[in-house]
């Protein structure tokens, strides 16, 4: 029984001043650093998009950020341009301790599909490889922290329970975007899926 801390998307664009700032996103960095020593392993995820990514409102004629549009894989919220691969906004918060990270998993790098979950792209079918990595290492108990609780953290946590992992979300070490009641809906979905909301 081995425990891994998965820190989701604690990147500059999701922190105050960034392109898709999550309120209070920077407030969780020091508590996350402080809990890393409690785990056998630490994994960081990194949202990593090409400039022409289909989740960006800027890439849809006449669209506004936060508008919902149909995509071949389901409905998709359009976001402001964020976490462009190789730019400063895609870098981790400068105070995040990266030294204990065994793996940095990038996601969302295909133009035509978004990837909230650390396990599957938004078609719920295309794997990122993380499940196999964790299983091969015997990491069975997953704790999640990071940004944003109501999107990438929730989608990752729910997928993880479906994949058979024991899953906990440390809400105090998360912050949410909370568009149109998304945080309440996300917590509801996590409880129903059997995620332990600590
Ligand atoms: C995220 C929206 C778009 C997240 C990533 O990390 O929660 N949200 N891309
Ligand atoms: Zn993104």
Automatic annotation (TrEMBL):
**Keyword annotations:** Hydrolase, Metal-binding, Pyridine nucleotide biosynthesis
- This entry's Enzyme Commission designation comes to 3.5.1.19
List the InterPro entries hit by this protein, alphabetically.
Answer: Isochorismatase-like_dom, Isochorismatase-like_sf, Isochorismatase_Nicotinamidase
The yes or no answer to whether the keyword Acetylation is present is no
Could you confirm whether the keyword Metal-binding appears in this record? yes
GO molecular function annotations of the record:
metal ion binding; nicotinamidase activity
Give start and end of each Isochorismatase-like domain. 4-191
Tell me the route in metabolism or biology where this protein functions: Cofactor biosynthesis; nicotinate biosynthesis; nicotinate from nicotinamide: step 1/1
Q: Which domain of life is it from?
A: Bacteria
Q: Which GO terms describe its biological process?
A: pyridine nucleotide biosynthetic process
Give the UniProt family note.
Answer: Belongs to the isochorismatase family.
**NCBIfam families documented for this protein:** PRK11609.1 (NF008623)
> What protein name applies here?
Nicotinamidase
This chain is encoded by the gene named: pncA
């Amino acid at each position: 029984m081995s425990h891994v801390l998965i820190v989701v998307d604690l990147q500059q664009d999701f922190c105050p001043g960034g392109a898709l700032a999550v309120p209070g996103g920077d407030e969780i960095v020091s508590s996350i650093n402080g809990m890393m020593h409690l785990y056998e392993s630490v994994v960081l995820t990194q949202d990593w998009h090409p400039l022409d990514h289909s989740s960006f409102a800027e890439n849809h004629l006449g669209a506004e950020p936060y508008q919902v549009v149909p995509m071949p894989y389901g409905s998709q919220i359009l976001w402001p341009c964020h976490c462009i691969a190789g730019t400063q906004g895609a870098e981790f918060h400068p105070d995040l301790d990266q030294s204990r990270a065994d793996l940095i998993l990038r996601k969302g790098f295909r133009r035509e599909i978004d990837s909230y979950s650390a396990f599957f792209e938004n078609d719920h079918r295309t794997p990122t490889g993380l499940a196999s990595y964790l299983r091969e290492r015997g990491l069975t108990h997953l704790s999640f922290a990071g940004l944003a609780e109501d999107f990438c953290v929730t989608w990752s946590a729910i997928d993880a329970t479906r994949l058979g992992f024991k899953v906990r979300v440390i809400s105090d070490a998360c912050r949410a975007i909370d568009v149109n009641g998304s945080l309440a809906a996300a917590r509801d979905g996590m409880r129903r899926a059997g995620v332990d909301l600590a």
